[in-house]
Design goal:
With 104 residues, the chain is α+β, with helices and mostly antiparallel strands. It has a single domain, classed as TATA-Binding Protein (2-Layer Sandwich), CATH 3.30.310. This is Polyhydroxyalkanoic acid system protein. It comes from Methylobacterium oxalidis. InterPro entries: PHA_gran_rgn (IPR013433).
Length: 104
C-alpha cells in the first residue's frame, strides 16, 4: 500500500448536519457506483467515523471519513496502481466534498 491520501474539507454546518449530508451522499453514491461495476464491501458508521471499502477491476480501496464540528477528514488507502492518480483523486474528493458540504 502506498501512503494514505488525506483530504481535509472545512465546513460551517456543525457535526450533525455534515454527517447527515455525508450519509445522504454516500447512499446516492452507492447507487451510482454499483451501476459502474464498483463493489462496496464495507460501509460502517462508528460514532462520527465512516469506515469504507470498495473494489473495482481487481483493485481494492479502503479508508475512513471522520466528521468534525468544522471539518471533514477523508483518508483513503490506495493500492500502488491507483496511487499514480493520487493527485487527481485528491482534487476530485475535495471538489465533490465541498459541493456536498456547502450547497444549501
Amino acid at each position: 500500500m502506498a501512503k494514505p491520501l488525506i483530504v481535509e474539507i472545512p465546513h460551517e454546518l456543525g457535526r450533525d448536519e455534515a454527517r447527515r449530508r455525508i450519509e445522504t451522499g454516500v447512499e446516492q453514491g452507492r447507487a451510482l457506483l454499483g451501476k459502474s461495476g464498483v463493489t462496496i464491501g464495507n460501509l460502517a458508521w462508528t460514532g462520527d467515523r465512516l469506515d469504507f471499502a470498495l473494489s473495482a477491476l481487481t483493485q481494492s480501496v479502503d479508508g475512513q471519513i471522520d466528521v468534525g464540528q468544522d471539518s471533514v477528514r477523508v483518508e483513503v488507502r490506495l493500492p500502488l496502481l491507483l496511487a499514480l492518480f493520487a493527485e487527481k483523486i485528491r482534487k476530485s474528493v475535495g471538489k465533490e466534498g465541498n459541493l456536498l458540504l456547502t450547497k444549501k
